[in-house]
Amino acid sequence: MELETLRDLYIDELKDLYSAEKQLTKALPRMARAANDPRLAKAFNNHLRETERQVKRLERIFKDLEERPGGKKCVGMEGLIEEGKELMAEKSDADVLDAGLISKARHVEHYEIAGYGTVRTYAMILGETRHAELLQETLDEEGAANKLLTQLAEGSINIEAAMADGEDMATSRTRAGGKSAAAKRGSSRGREREVSRRTSVEGDGAGGSRGGGRSTKRETELTAL
Ligand code: FE
Ligand code: ZN
Ligand code: FE
C-alpha cells in the first residue's frame, strides 16, 4: 500500500489496530484462565467482551470508508502477546504470575492507547467526526482497563506477589487455582504491613491514590494520550 496522504496512513493504522484487537480476542481468554485471582480473571473476561465491541466499532468505520479491514498483521501486538505466552509457560508462584499477567496486560493497554489516540486525532483532522467519536469511546475503555489493572496490582496483587514463598509453584496449565494468597494473608500480617509500606513509598509509577505525586501525574498524562 502506498501512503501518499494522511487518509492512506489513517486507513493503514486502522488496519493495524483491527489486527491487534483480533489477536487480543484470542489472547484474553488464555490470560483469564491463567489468572489466579478471580478479580483479575473477571477483569480479563470483561475486557474480552469490550474488545469484541471495539472490533465492531472498527468494522463500522471500515464500512463507512468503503475499505476492507484485513490484509495487515500488527506485529507489535503479536510480540506483546508472545511475551504473555512466555510468562504463562514459566513455572511460577500463582501470585507472582498474576502480577506478571497484569504487567503484560498493561503493556497491551498502553500500546492500544497510543494507537487509538493517534487515529482519533487523524479522524478529527480529516473531518471524520463520527469516526473520532467512536475511536474516542474505545480510547476511554482502554484507559479504564489500564486503570483497573493498576488498581488491582497496587491494591493487593503486587503485595501478595511480594509475599510469595513458592508454595504454590506451578505452570499455569496444571495449577488447580489457588487459595494460597488468602491463606498467606492470614498468617503474615506484619510482613504484609511492611511490604505495604515499602510499596507505597516506591509505587510502580502508575496512578492510584498512594505513591508519589509526580509519577502519578506522569501516568495520568500518558493515559490522556
Ligand atoms: Fe482494545
Ligand atoms: Zn501494530
Ligand atoms: Fe484493550
In short:
By secondary structure, this protein is mostly helical. It has helices spanning 6-34, 38-65, 75-89, 94-125, 129-162, 180-187, 189-202, 213-224, and strands at residues 92-93, 169-170.
Topology:
Blueprint: H1 6-34, H2 38-65, H3 75-89, E1 92-93, H4 94-125, H5 129-162, E2 169-170, H6 180-187, H7 189-202, H8 213-224
Antiparallel strand pairs: 1-2
Helix pairs in contact: 1-2, 1-3, 1-4, 2-5, 3-4, 4-5, 5-7
This protein binds fe (iii) ion (2 copies) and zinc ion.
The site of one fe (iii) ion has 6 residues, from helix 2, helix 4 and helix 5.
Please tell me what the overall shape is. Answer: elongated
Task: Please tally the helical runs, counting DSSP H or I stretches of 4 or more residues.
Answer: 8
**CATH superfamily grouping:** Ferritin, core subunit, four-helix bundle
The fold-level CATH name is: Ferritin
The assigned structural class equals mainly alpha
Major beta sheet, strand line-up:
1-2
Kindly list the characteristics that best describe this protein.
about 220 residues; Ferritin; two-stranded antiparallel ribbon; binds fe (iii) ion; binds zinc ion
Explain the overall architecture.
There is one protein chain. This protein has one domain: Ferritin, core subunit, four-helix bundle (Ferritin, Up-down Bundle). 76% of the residues lie in helices and 2% in strands. It is built from 8 helices and 2 strands. A two-stranded antiparallel sheet has the order 1-2. The longest helix is centred in the middle third of the chain and has 34 residues, at 129-162. It is elongated and about 55 Å long. The two termini are 27 Å apart. Mean pLDDT is 83; it is low at 173-225. The structure holds fe (iii) ion (2 copies) and zinc ion. The site of zinc ion has 5 residues, from helix 1 and helix 3.
